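Name: Two-component system response regulator
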Amino acid sequence: METTPAPSNVDPNRTLLLVDDDDILRERLARALAKRGYAVTTAPSVAAGITAARSNPPRYAVCDLRLADGNGLDVIAAIRDINPDARVVMLTGYGNIATAVAAVKAGAVDYMAKPADADDIDAALQASGDTKPEPPDRPMSADRVRWEHINRIYELCERNVSETARRLNMHRRTLQRILAKHSPR
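Structure predicted for Two-component system response regulator:
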């Protein structure tokens, strides 16, 4: 559990717990949210997230759905037990309707696909009551979403092209061409 240094203009009521097992994403997002005035505490797992929530109940939280040691829904449930007024945003690289419904039932105010922009997360956290935040000004293109998904599966398959192609039901050569290109905008 780490606390990201925040600017001097941070409101102590803007405590935020960020739970994600992707170290790079967690640290970048923590810095970006700290610049937006949040006092950010990070955790890499369900267990660390629940411990952090109990030791310092957050007003806001951003939580990944799939974590190495379990499900982010458990963290949301713990946060809601500790602070029923907490505003929680669920992030996931595996978006589908069933998990979105489960996240909202658990108490999340919004559900976003990774990689999510810090401005979009901030807007979701600051939306008042049950109002929905405005749609993003610059949403990811369909090509970018596809590229992100393919690369995520590639990493989960330990960078094995043949296994990734099998899981994506894609020809191996096609996958190699996609992986060789730079990310689309």
